[in-house]
UniProtKB/TrEMBL annotation:
Keyword tags: Endoplasmic reticulum, Glycosyltransferase, Membrane, Transferase, Transmembrane, Transmembrane helix
Catalysed reaction, written as an equation: an alpha-D-Man-(1->2)-alpha-D-Man-(1->2)-alpha-D-Man-(1->3)-[alpha-D-Man-(1->6)]-beta-D-Man-(1->4)-beta-D-GlcNAc-(1->4)-alpha-D-GlcNAc-diphospho-di-trans,poly-cis-dolichol + a di-trans,poly-cis-dolichyl beta-D-mannosyl phosphate = an alpha-D-Man-(1->2)-alpha-D-Man-(1->2)-alpha-D-Man-(1->3)-[alpha-D-Man-(1->3)-alpha-D-Man-(1->6)]-beta-D-Man-(1->4)-beta-D-GlcNAc-(1->4)-alpha-D-GlcNAc-diphospho-di-trans,poly-cis-dolichol + a di-trans,poly-cis-dolichyl phosphate + H(+)
InterPro entries named in the record: Glycosyltransferase_ALG3
Listed name of the protein: dolichyl-P-Man:Man5GlcNAc2-PP-dolichol alpha-1,3-mannosyltransferase
Location in the cell: Endoplasmic reticulum membrane
TM helices/strands, residue ranges: 20-41, 99-119, 146-165, 171-195, 202-225, 262-281
Amino acid sequence: MRSIEKKRRALSGYKISKAVAFASALIILDAILVSLIVAFVPYTKIDWDAYISQVDGFLGGERDYSELKGDTGPLVYPAGFLYVYSAIKFVTGGQVFPAQILFGILYIVNLGIIFLIYVKTDLLPWWTLSLLCLSKRIHSIFMLRLFNDCFAMTLLHASLALLLYQKWHLALLIFSGAVSIKMNVLLYAPPLLLLMWKGMSIMGLLSALLGAGLLQILFGLPFLLSHPVAYISRAFNLGRVFIHFWSVNFKFVPEELFVSKGFASALLALHLTLLLLFAHYKWSKH
């Protein structure tokens, strides 16, 4: 039995070392690809100018969220977004090319974190890591569009990596930081809460949630103290209607149906139903 266990451990160690070596080679190759994209592929102008306009208003002393606007409309992201892009503007001077370099570095960091998650879980063959480098859309979102999704998802993936090591409190703080950049990260909250419910004590769960909540208050404090209603209604607006033109998944739906409250309610009900089914039959199976 001991010899079988030793062989099993040796095989597992060999698989992990092979995956790590392959992941390292992929990171180097993708870093070269990132450099070529930044150097030769034209930047796609969508939200960058709007981000910088909103940041300029914040740095100029504006604390009323209803007055922070850009080319694409009013600011609809929580306060963490302003802090991150204020730092980006300070580093890059608000120029696109140095920002692309910064986002290229961020892409490689995010890719490394995802590789860590895949290697640590050891659920897929090592060669499948290459599939993570083949997305044209992900490269575009990072290096050509400079979206805030990049920072939000990198923090989310860092949070997931910490969960693998059961660093619950730190993972939830980083998760809260991701939410403060873009609220769609909350879509990951249901399975995260279930994991914490199963892996922590009640007191531990409550203290972790309290820490995450306090972080949101701390980030939003300059706006909560001056114009709390404007901040909460704009930064955490769950009833916002999206523009049909920019839809990716529901382009086939007529615009009249897409912007209707009935369609939004139906999607929400379907989403919650699927979450309950997965929670009962999949996530809590064992």
